[in-house]
Amino acid sequence: MSVSCDARFFPAELKASAETLAKPAAEALYAIRDGSCAGGEWTGWFDWPRKSGERLAADIKEYIGKLDVYYDLVLVIGIGGSYLGTRAVSEALSHSYGIALGKAGRHARRPAIVYAGHHLSEAGLVELLDLLEERQPIVNVISKSGTTTEPAVAFRVVRHYMEKRFGKAESSRRIIATTDKSKGALRRLAEEAHYKTFDVPDDVGGRFSVLTAVGLVPLALATLDIERLVSGADEIFRALREGDPGDHPALRYAALRTAAYRSGKKIELLATGEPRLQYLIEWWKQLFGESEGKDGKGLFTAGLNYTTDLHSLGQYVQDGERILLETFLEVEQPGGEGGAGVERRIRVPHLQGDADGLGYLEQRFLGEVNAAALLGTRLAHADGGVPCLQLGVPRLDERTIGQLIAFFETACGVSGALLGVNPYDQPGVEAYKKNLFGLLGKPGFEDLGATLRRRL
Fold first, then answer.
1. For a 10 Å CB count at each end of the chain, is N or C smaller?
2. Which residues contact 442 (CB under 8 A, 6 or more apart)?
3. Are 93 and 398 in contact (CB under 8 A)?
4. Contact, 75 vs 132, CB < 8 A?
């Protein structure tokens, strides 16, 4: 079982161009494997399951099994890679309405996960505190430094709330910090407050960190099977580390998107027909956008959810400027699970008189209708001049999500190498932070603040 890459609706000339990139792509993979690539000190994500992930998953499960506090809500505080990977996995594998179904019933099988620290909305944090008041929360704050503005502000507010509600001793048992193993503001605070801590690896950047404690701790708190997640990723990494990768789908995807970019395409759309994959797309957007968007280069990454977006942006994709590459992420068996893990399906029911004109769909599974809509869309967009790829997995579970994570991480590292950039730094992210510090009067940024205010 693995991720497939289908290029049937990709122009022949671009496929031919991609074939010339097969050798450079393989060389890029070898450089990632031995750490000799640009940014090689940050390639600890490759083969992470075998090196550390399997042992870490077992340790996390053992810790959670011994937790002596009751909780029915997991609050993750983090931004970027500190929360997006967790959210991608959780929302792909959890009931979409789980938090609204209440604490009882057959669908309330795991605590809900909610998020803070990824924005500075005052209204959003006020509403989060309302939710915490109705639940028994456990908090996982994730930050390597502890000083990133958005999560640091959110954690200060949440910590104050937790200590006021539960007291300092009980709060210290309900707060888990994932941070640098030896230094930083959050590490010092965690040691002073006696929080349980897990380490952010020194050689894994945030957007590549979902299979480390950054993602595994909150996912395990929500009772997702992190061992299967790690095992699924290892299946991809194992195939990439043992012998010649040949035409591995991850390298093929990297070569095809690079060929499209070199032909003048500027935007890659990742489209899906499964709303539960929305945050996997958000994680993908950060992974590729932050890794490749530098030195005036790179595909701009954007996401679409079909068929919803066919009734809005679909017009542009079909007939707009031909700067687009479109990748479809499809699931062969997308049906949800009912009680005892039994898959549930929905057929289009019979309607007497066929007033809505849908008689031709009667007794077909809705998934079949959705698949036809996606195939029809891919055909239409390819006919309209958009190179189209299809990535596919057989179903949505921890194993296949783990495979997708390893697949995209590898493809991103290889794509960055083919582009000629260091995929593991993000120098442009600091620009807005300096302006923020200046405008708010952070010590050491007063002169910048004065300069910015003169421009307003």
1. C
2. none
3. yes
4. yes
Q: For residue 344, what are its two tokens?
A: 């549930």
pLDDT tens per residue across all 456 residues of the chain = 589 999 999 999 999 999 999 999 999 999 999 999 999 999 999 999 999 999 999 999 999 999 999 999 999 999 998 999 999 999 999 888 877 776 555 555 679 999 999 999 999 999 999 999 999 999 999 999 888 999 999 999 999 999 999 999 999 999 999 999 999 999 999 999 999 999 999 999 999 999 999 999 999 999 999 999 999 999 999 999 987 787 899 999 999 999 999 999 999 999 999 999 999 999 999 999 999 999 999 999 999 999 999 999 999 999 999 999 999 999 987 655 444 344 578 898 998 998 998 889 889 888 899 999 999 999 999 999 999 999 999 999 999 999 999 999 999 999 999 999 999 998 866 777 788 787 777 888 878 778 878 888
Find, among 152, 150, 158, the residue nearest to 129 by Cα.
158
HSE, side-chain direction, 13 A CA sphere, residue 288: 28
Which secondary structure element, helix H or strand E, spans residue 300, and what is its range? strand 300-305
- Residue 75, φ and ψ in degrees, nearest 5: -105, 120
Contact 273, 259 (CB under 8 A): no
Cα separation of the two ends of the chain: 56
Tokens of 397: 């579970």
- Whether 271 and 304 have beta carbons less than 8 Å apart is answered as yes
- φ, ψ of residue 19 to 5 degrees: the values are -65, -30
Which residues are annotated as catalytic? Answer: 290, 311, 433
Collapsed DSSP state (helix, strand, coil) of residue 77: strand
- Cα–Cα distance list, 20 to 9, 243, 267, 360 (Å): 19, 21, 22, 46
Angstrom distance (rounded) from CA 369 to CA 412? 32
Closest CA to 39 of 449, 424, 386, 410: 424
Q: What is the DSSP letter of 57?
A: H
Cα(48)–Cα(178) distance, integer angstroms: 17
- The answer to whether 88 touches 209, Cβ cutoff 8 Å, is no
E strand segments, 89-221 = 112-116, 137-142, 175-180, 196-200
